Q: What sequence folds into this?
């Protein structure tokens, strides 16, 4: 019987071309056949005891599967887990970050980075059908504190909550479970988590940045993702708003806003809002990318003028 029988091929097809020595033996491949497959350049070592087909792409997923076959029961974490969850603001550095047991030395491969800790609840581990074992989105967000600055960390937290991958309460629980004097980065995570709005969650990275910047300037009642019923138009969603001022902000970073049809639709919608006393200001992607601080300064001037308008209106 050929060493590469149907079971071997089906297994490796579902595990990113990776099989362990134990897998191959289970499917009837002998030790001698494994050695011959390696000599014939059909299989090659990824880690000790884990092989891949030579013709298959040597991609990150392959390395993640191989890492998760290690006897130390490694778990993919940090930026590698973030990329697997399609989290934004991740570095694409070709490294596989894993959590290993204390005092473990699972590999000297240059593409693997090991964070050693026993503080990992089984509930915070997700097992995928392809053999990859990784941290849950809330635990991934917490671990990313060691790799990201406050701005990008907050954006990741916003994305995880906005996409329904975890709530602020869940992320806070995960953080408190591992909080200790020896992990000051957990306190930083909790601080970033608590600096976010009390209601509403920004969707995009730029929304997260703008909301954070305006709150830091003193607009503490800013409300992201505010739904508003507009007569003769319908129900709309503003990227951010201050309800007491009937003031909304739209952060136009998607290309659809700059087409003729998209721009016309935005203007008509803003006019409908104006008709019911709501002022909507738009911030373009070019302004944010090239002159972020200057743009926030201008938005703050609009906010202050809107405050004065409402004060004068109330005095009448």
A:
């Amino acid at each position: 019987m050929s060493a590469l029988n149907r079971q071997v091929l089906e297994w490796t097809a579902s595990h990113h071309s990776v099989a362990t020595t134990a897998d191959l033996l289970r499917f009837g491949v002998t030790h001698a056949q494994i050695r011959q497959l390696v000599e014939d350049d059909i299989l090659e070592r990824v880690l000790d005891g884990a092989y891949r087909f030579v013709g298959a792409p040597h991609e990150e997923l392959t390395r993640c599967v191989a890492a998760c076959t290690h006897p130390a029961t490694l778990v993919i974490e940090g930026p590698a887990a973030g990329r697997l969850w399609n989290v934004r603001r991740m570095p694409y550095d070709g490294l596989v970050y894993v959590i290993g047991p204390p005092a473990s030395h699972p590999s000297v491969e240059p593409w693997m980075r090991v964070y050693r800790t026993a503080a990992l609840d089984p509930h915070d581990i997700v097992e995928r059908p392809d053999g990859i074992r990784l941290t849950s989105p809330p635990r991934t967000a917490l671990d990313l504190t060691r790799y990201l600055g406050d701005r990008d960390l907050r954006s990741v937290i916003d994305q995880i909550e906005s996409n329904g991958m975890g709530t602020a309460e869940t992320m806070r629980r995960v953080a408190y479970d591992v909080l200790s004097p020896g992990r000051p980065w957990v306190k930083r995570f909790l601080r970033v988590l608590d600096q976010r709005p009390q209601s509403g969650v920004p969707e995009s990275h730029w929304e997260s940045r703008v909301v954070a910047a305006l709150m830091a300037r003193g607009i503490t009642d800013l409300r992201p993702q505010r739904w508003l019923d507009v007569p003769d138009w319908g129900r709309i969603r503003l990227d951010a708003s201050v309800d007491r001022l009937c003031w909304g902000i739209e952060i136009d970073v998607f290309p659809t806003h700059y087409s003729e049809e998209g721009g016309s639709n935005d203007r008509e919608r803003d006019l409908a809002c104006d008709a019911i006393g709501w002022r909507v200001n738009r911030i373009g992607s070019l302004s944010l990318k090239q002159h972020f601080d200057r743009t926030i300064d201008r938005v703050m001037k609009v906010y202050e003028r809107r405050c004065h308008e409402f004060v004068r209106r109330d005095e009448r």
In short: The CA atoms of residues 63 and 138 lie 23 Å apart.
